[in-house]
Structures are given as structure tokens and as C-alpha cells.
């Protein structure tokens, strides 16, 4: 009987020693450094746990002693709730940190920036250069993308003017790998729709605008005329006053837009005399579509323009504009600007 208890004691001692050794081994194992590049991504499929995760780590050559991973996952089942996704290994140092990341479901995030005042042609380049974004629109025309986004286009000759400029919301958009370019544009289009509806529904009374589309067109002109947010409501007032007075808008950004690739950096007299649907020196009222992507600031400026008696404005040389009430005042402001410009050019 005495020998039995001695044997049992020895067995328990060996068992406890083995358990303690195993505990130490796994504790040390989870603190081992992984071998990953700062920009490395790890693609984890649905249902990846245990053997599949071990095989994935071995394939990516992330850790040594990979045979210990299944034991660690059994020892710490809370680390075995792996979520499918694409994970960035940037900043991940240890096996434990890696497993915590894969259990969190916090996938890698990338972003693409869409800037106000730009055109969809410029935005498309940003989409094409966005990393880890599925490019599903590369072979599609702007008109086809317009249809895919279900843009509410209130304009005559819709087939001629399926134009995405103005109909997408400028912002920085975050996305996870394998998101599609169409999904990003759908998010942008939906945000613009909400911002436009809000501006239209809360607009001042008696604006000379027939529908939200016209508000968006005018906002795009305000966007291009000034980059100073505090000045936009005053710029909007000039165009509102002109529309009310049945005056031509006579705004250079629309002329430039209508020139397309023919614009080489300056507007000549013959350009102002060349008819296009966007030449507001010739046409009455607004052009048929927006001419650029619109910020919410420009939308709100058109929805709530300042109450002024200004009909003209010109650059003042300081980044802003000089606003005037009549042609005589405007001509003087133009001369003042030209005098400033020449003095700067001559270095005086």
C-alpha cells in the first residue's frame, strides 16, 4: 500500500511538473515575435480555426514552432474565435497580439479622398489608384456608372446630360480590402442626395430655383468661384440677384467647363463668344448640369444666400473678392485688381 502511494505521488508530481512546464512553454510561445512586414496583409477565410489557422501561419511563415499553436488555442479558447477578414499586420509584434487582432474582427482600413471642386474625371483617377479596392468600373463609361448609381437627374435631354459631376459627396472614404469602387460611389451618391434634400427642404423662400437640380448646379458654380467658405453666401447672393433680374450669369468657370480639353489655362474673347450649353455669357439662366463636385458649404450658401444688392464681384488680390452693386463700381474694382496684378508682376 505504501508503495502505491509513493507511486501515485511520483505520478502526480511528474504530471504537475509536465503541466507546469507546458504552461510555461505556451505562455512563452504566445509572446514570441511574429515575422511580418509592416505593410503585410493577412487574408483569413471564413471558418478558419485550429488546423486551418496553423496551416495559414505556416504558409505565411509568420511564426516558428507553429506546431504549438493548436495547443495554445485549446489552452486559451477565448483566442480561438477567429473572424474572417483581411487584417493589417502593421504594428503587430507577438503571437498573442496577432490572435487578439484576428478575434477582434478589426479589418485593415484604407481610404480614398474625393475633393470638392473637382470633376468625376479627376475622381476616377483616385479610384483607379486606390490600393486593395476591387476595380469593377474600369471599362464602364460615365453614363453607365450614372445609371448604376440611380442618380436623380431632373433635366431635359437626360440621355445627353448623364453627368456625374456634382452628384457625389466630397469626403475621405474609408474601406476594407476587397470593397468595390461602385460601393464607394454608392455611399458618396447617397450622402449627396441627403445633403441636397436637406438644403432644398430648408431653403430660404422665394429663391429663383425650380428644383433641387438647379440648386445643385448653382452650388457647383459657387464652389468653383471661391474657396473661402465665409464668402460663399455672398457669392451666391450675386447669382441669385442676377437670376431674379433675368441677367446672364457670366461666370468664367462654366465657360471653362464647356470648353473641356480645349481649355489651356486662359479664356480668350473668342471663347466667351463661342456657344456651348455652359457658356453663361451667351445662354440665359443656369447651365444644364453641375460643373464640379459640391461641398455642403456651397449647398448651404445657395440655400441661404446673404441678402445683398450686389450684382458683380472680382478678385481683390488677397484671395477673396470685391463685391459691387453696378457696372461702374465693378469696372473700377476690375481696374484696381489689374493695377495690383501688374504691380505684383513687375515686382513692385
From TrEMBL:
Keywords (A to Z) from UniProt: Cell cycle, Cell division, Cell inner membrane, Cell membrane, Cell wall biogenesis/degradation, Lyase, Membrane, Transmembrane, Transmembrane helix
Reaction(s) catalysed (UniProt annotation): a peptidoglycan chain = a peptidoglycan chain with N-acetyl-1,6-anhydromuramyl-[peptide] at the reducing end + a peptidoglycan chain with N-acetylglucosamine at the non-reducing end
Biological process annotations from GO: cell division; cell wall organization; peptidoglycan biosynthetic process
Site (Important for catalytic activity): residue numbering on this chain: 225
InterPro entries tied to this protein: MLTG-like
Domain of life where this protein originates: Bacteria
Recorded coiled-coil stretches: none
Pfam families listed in its UniProt record: YceG
Keyword Metal-binding: no
Family (UniProt): Belongs to the transglycosylase MltG family.
Official protein name in the record: Endolytic murein transglycosylase
Species of the source: Rodentibacter genomosp. 1
Organism lineage string: Bacteria, Pseudomonadati, Pseudomonadota, Gammaproteobacteria, Pasteurellales
Amino acid at each position: 500500500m505504501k508503495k502505491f502511494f509513493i507511486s501515485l505521488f511520483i505520478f502526480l508530481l511528474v504530471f504537475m511538473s509536465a503541466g507546469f512546464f507546458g504552461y510555461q512553454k505556451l505562455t512563452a510561445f504566445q509572446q514570441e515575435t511574429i515575422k511580418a512586414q509592416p505593410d503585410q496583409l493577412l487574408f483569413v477565410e471564413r471558418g478558419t480555426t485550429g488546423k486551418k489557422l496553423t496551416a495559414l501561419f505556416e504558409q505565411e511563415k509568420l511564426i516558428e514552432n507553429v506546431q504549438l499553436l493548436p495547443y495554445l488555442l485549446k489552452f486559451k479558447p477565448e483566442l480561438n474565435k477567429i473572424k474572417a477578414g483581411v487584417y493589417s499586420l502593421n504594428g503587430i509584434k507577438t503571437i498573442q497580439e496577432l490572435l487578439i487582432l484576428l478575434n477582434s474582427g478589426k479589418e485593415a482600413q484604407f481610404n480614398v479622398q474625393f475633393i470638392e471642386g473637382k470633376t468625376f474625371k479627376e475622381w476616377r483617377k483616385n479610384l483607379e489608384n486606390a490600393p486593395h479596392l476591387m476595380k469593377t468600373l474600369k471599362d464602364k463609361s460615365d453614363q453607365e456608372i450614372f445609371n448604376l448609381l440611380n442618380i436623380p437627374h431632373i433635366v431635359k435631354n437626360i440621355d445627353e446630360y448623364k453627368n456625374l459631376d456634382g452628384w457625389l459627396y466630397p469626403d475621405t472614404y474609408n474601406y476594407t480590402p476587397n470593397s468595390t469602387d461602385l460601393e464607394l460611389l454608392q455611399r458618396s451618391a447617397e450622402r449627396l442626395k441627403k445633403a441636397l434634400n436637406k438644403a432644398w427642404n430648408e431653403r430660404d423662400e422665394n429663391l429663383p430655383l425650380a428644383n433641387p437640380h438647379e440648386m445643385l448646379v448653382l452650388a457647383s458654380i459657387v464652389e468653383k468661384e471661391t474657396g473661402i467658405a465665409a464668402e460663399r453666401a455672398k457669392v451666391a447672393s450675386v447669382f441669385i440677384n442676377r437670376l431674379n433680374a433675368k441677367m446672364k450669369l457670366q461666370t468664367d468657370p462654366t465657360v471653362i467647363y464647356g470648353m473641356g480639353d480645349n481649355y489651356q489655362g486662359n479664356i480668350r474673347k473668342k471663347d466667351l463668344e463661342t456657344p456651348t450649353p455652359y457658356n453663361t455669357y451667351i445662354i440665359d439662366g443656369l447651365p444644364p448640369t453641375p460643373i464640379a463636385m459640391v461641398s455642403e458649404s456651397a449647398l448651404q450658401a445657395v440655400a441661404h444666400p446673404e441678402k445683398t444688392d450686389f450684382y458683380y464681384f472680382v478678385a481683390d488680390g488677397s484671395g477673396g473678392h470685391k463685391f459691387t452693386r453696378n457696372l461702374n463700381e465693378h469696372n473700377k474694382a476690375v481696374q484696381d485688381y489689374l493695377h495690383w496684378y501688374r504691380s505684383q508682376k513687375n515686382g513692385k
